[in-house]
Amino acid sequence: MSINVKQLAAEKAVEYVEDGMKVGLGTGSTAYWAIRKLGERVSEGLKITTVATSRASEEQARELGIPLVAFSDIDSLDLTIDGADELDSSLQLIKGGGGALLREKIVASNSTRMIVIADEGKVVNTLGKFPLPVEIVPFAWEWTVAELAKLGCQPELRRNGEELYKTDNGNYIADCRFEAIDAAPKLALTIQNIPGVVDHGLFIGIAAMAIVGKLDGSIEIIEAQPKN
């Protein structure tokens, strides 16, 4: 019987959710399992309030009876559980493969703690093999993409069939192939300063812990080092 490593990591993360918490619900194939497990715990009596990082996660939560609140009703979160497309031993992340990077970053940044859930294939020594998603405004996107290309990557606008992919915010995503990102914090600042960029999928200094599911059925926990 094969092990679902995403489910393994997700369900472990849900163990950190306690009664009365305000929880951010991530987006993607691994976060799906966390939301499903939360739904089970809510049906068993767990009392939480949540916000979602995408329409898809919001719909899943509603179907499972997980209480959702408007962002205007709360000012911060206790915990966010979300996946990652890549992560390293310093808990630097690439996110945005599912297209929700901006909302995910807003939610995670306003959480006391972010737990990343992933399968062992997402753990890398150096970020960059996974194309870095950058959310950009549609206006003059050609110029924004040209500026991104000057950073040494190959940017390509994401598509949804024949149409250009649009985020829940109505923006485009440029997937930037760097192959290797040696100085992620510096690159993050450089990209953020390009006019037309809304945000990017580099999450630096945001995650507190990663729970990694492995094919042998074990779990690895990576914790962020204390800041000096």
Keywords:
228 residues; alpha/beta; six-stranded mixed β-sheet; four-stranded antiparallel β-sheet; 6 helices; 28% strand
How would you describe the overall organization of this protein?
It is an enzyme of class 5 (isomerase). Homodimer. Its EC number is 5.3.1.6. This protein is of the alpha/beta class. 27% of the residues lie in helices and 28% in strands. The protein is built from six helices and 15 strands. The chain has helices spanning 5-14, 29-43, 55-63, 101-109, 141-149, 184-192, and strands at 22-25, 49-52, 77-83, 86-87, 93-94, 111-119, 132-136, 154-157, 159-160, 163-164, 172-177, 197-200, 202-203, 209-213, 219-223. The protein has a six-stranded mixed beta sheet. Strand 9 (159-160) and strand 10 (163-164) form a beta hairpin. The longest helix is centred in the first third of the chain and has 15 residues, at 29-43. The chain is globular and about 50 Å long.
Can you give me a brief rundown of this structure?
This protein has 228 residues and is α/β, with parallel strands linked by helices. The protein contains six helices and 15 strands.
